[in-house]
Amino acid sequence: LGNPFGVGQSVTMGIVSALGRSNLGTGHYENYIQTDAAINPGNSGGALVDSEGKLVGVNTAIYSKTGGSQGVGFAIPANAVRVTLNSVLTTGKITRPWFGAAGQDVTDDLAVQLELSRPYGVLINEIVPDSPAAKANLQIGDIILSFDGKEVDTMGVLNARIASSYVGETYNMDVWREGKGYVSSVMLGALPDRRVAEQYTVQGSNPLAGYTFEPLSPALNDELGLPFNTEGVVVVGAPSRRGFGMVDLIEGDIIVSINKKNIRTMKDLQTAVSRRPNAWQVVYERGGNIHRVIVQ
User: What is the value of pTM for the model shown?
Assistant: First the structure.
């Protein structure tokens, strides 16, 4: 349901193509329902419903080389929307659930080394001090096999489970530690408020003019699903119009280097964009993938 291109309310039909889609480069959320129902500009925020009229998700994004529908659309699941709506109704603001740990998917080789019957679960390799995960006595090297009674296959699935859970509620986890399994419980907290950090909007005549950047921080890293100690600057605002000779970035993109100079701080960025080279080479990360653009 939606109002594509402003022509009026309309309905399109399709199937659910896949669940749990991630690495779309959309920044803050990575657990989408994929559908081939036509989603065009104007459908964002519209309802994705099933044949009984029940809300399944909220239309959010498309993959397209033309700007119009090509049968690859994405919606945020209704369960995640419900958590956000409940937060707004009860507290007057959006409060995201926070776990405070990150890890890696268990591969075939890791499963053998860790004495698992098959490759599944998340191997914890980062825990934020005083976080819900730390208070649940999780340790580096633990493997989370399930969350709230549902099996966890990947870090993306674990993040999806957490995103659809409620702040202040306690959830059980099946954990594998040193060849033995046990049940642990965690009370999810609220994602720490992101302090308003210094932001910098690039001015002048260069390929990044009009983009606004912010330095990464532990809270922002958690929000973006990055390792907690990741350093760098991230796009938090983009110009409404991008002219010829500009780099096409979106919110959530992380600048890796400019003209072969690594960008780790805001000062690095400001120094890089103050120069006037004959050509610009910008390397950035989006959804875990590295991209390189050269602009004359």
Answer: 0.62
